[in-house]
Amino acid sequence: MPSHHDTDYVSYKSKTTGKKFEVFTKPQKAMEWRNTRKAKAAAEGSGGQREGGADTAAVLAQACVYRDVKKLKVASAGELMAEFGTEDALEAAAFILEKGKLRVKVYIRRPVMELTLDAVFAMETVTALYTCYHKEGVLPKFLAACIMVAIVVTLTMTLCRTCGRWLSTRMLPQPPFNDPLSEDTVLRQFQTQMWQLIAHVTMSAFGLYAYLDGDDFLEHPARLMQPWQVTKPIRVPSSRLFQNK
Questions:
Q1: 114-127: per-residue pLDDT in tens?
Q2: In what order do the strands lie in the sheet with 8-13?
Q3: 137-166 burial string, b = 16+ CB within 10 Å, else e?
Q4: Distance CA 218, CA 215 (A)
Q5: Euclidean distance between CA atoms 144 and 126, whole angstroms
Q6: Dist CA 230 CA 239 (whole Å)
Q7: Helix ranges restricted to H, 46-171
Q8: Three-state secondary structure call for residue 129
């Protein structure tokens, strides 16, 4: 299975049915494929002899058509026949490569990596529960913090999705932008990246507020992880809260 570091994709949305079909492609190969097709078509139109068609299989990272590359949902033969008039995935892929929109760096699920991350998360959860069990009064605070974080993340993601769609349709509908967030896949990518950006910027700003003492911060950067050295009383609770996060 291709890695999201070395895989692009092409997305095609039917104007009649509204269904979306996508294919994984090797880096920059889709654009090269289109340029080759255009050059050969121009040569044929000007009287030159056209060579055989471009090798679609060589362009694809995987020789199949997806309904959604994010979920790795493969299009059925019936769906290909209904939309493209053929059950051949390569023929359908050639149409998608020619008519679809070029996308880059799609995330692909990797079961082994996800299983490893799940194991790490499970160990962190066990450690947190063990700490909550042996320290009185920690569990309610921990649960309240988890609920608060979940609510804030959900609200932030909803805000990013709503504002992103509004800006794309109202502010950027004309060329050269052409409503860049009209595709659900692109909108999800924007939503995910924006809420993480907001979270990191907010945490950085809060960290500076909590730790920056104003006198010898640059000379003693170790104070970033030593909140007991913060001299201003109003910042001590904030610094300890930030360190616990």
A1: 889 899 999 988 88
A2: 73-74, 66-68, 20-25, 8-13, 101-103
A3: eeeeebeeeeeeeeeeeeebbeebbeebbe
A4: 8
A5: 18
A6: 8
A7: 56-59, 77-84, 89-99, 111-134, 138-170
A8: helix
Structure tokens at 161: 């999705």
| Gap between the Cα atoms of 38 and 214, Å rounded | 62
Measured at the alpha carbon of residue 109, what is the angle toward residues 180 and 189, in degrees to the nearest 5? 20
How many other C-beta atoms can be found within 10 angstroms of the C-beta atom of residue 11? 21
Q: Are 209 and 235 in contact (CB under 8 A)?
A: yes
> For 181, which DSSP code?
T
List the structure tokens of 46: 């000007």
Look at residues 198, 189, 197, 187 and name the one whose alpha carbon lies nearest to residue 162.
187
Q: What is the mean pLDDT of residues 226-237?
A: 53
Q: Compare 181 and 235 and report the one with higher pLDDT.
A: 181
Q: Which two tokens stand for residue 76?
A: 């059925």
Residue 230, Ramachandran bin (φ over 0: left; ψ between -120 and 50: alpha; else beta) = beta
